[in-house]
From TrEMBL:
MF GO annotations: iron-sulfur cluster binding
Protein name: (2Fe-2S)-binding protein
PROSITE patterns registered for this protein in UniProt: 2FE2S_FER_2
Residues in 2Fe-2S ferredoxin-type domain copies: 2-98
Amino acid sequence: MATVTITIEGKQVAAEHNSTLLSVFKENDVLVNQICGGQGMCASCHFFVVGGAESLTQPTQQEKMTLQFTKIERPGARLACQTRAIGEGVVIELPIGTFVQSEQDLETKIGRKADKTLIHPMTGEVLVEAGKLVLRSALEKMKESSSKFADYLSKK
């Protein structure tokens, strides 16, 4: 089988031609969430294309819809479950921070400074920047985003 080279966070890895980036991440022990089970319905497996976008498949309709819904503000966002490697020279970066596991998890952090950027587990939205105080408003933001996301999924 033909392989292509992908650079993930400065490390070059070999990937089978036409494999999803999600499978490449798993094969190379890159920690990534996949809350929707790889269906392209959430943004928990998102990454950022820094170079070689032409060596990836075009975004699927599902990926476009999901990324439109999310609040990921950085350009070059793609979903690892929907993106396939079809050529050389892809350079990607992963989101910096940690995905909050639940509303209860975020609630336990209220009143303390975030040691890492806290990211919504489904939408990829930054809830609290690293070094900032975690406020109750971050929990409300998470609840609101989760509710909107659930509504979005129920209409699918």
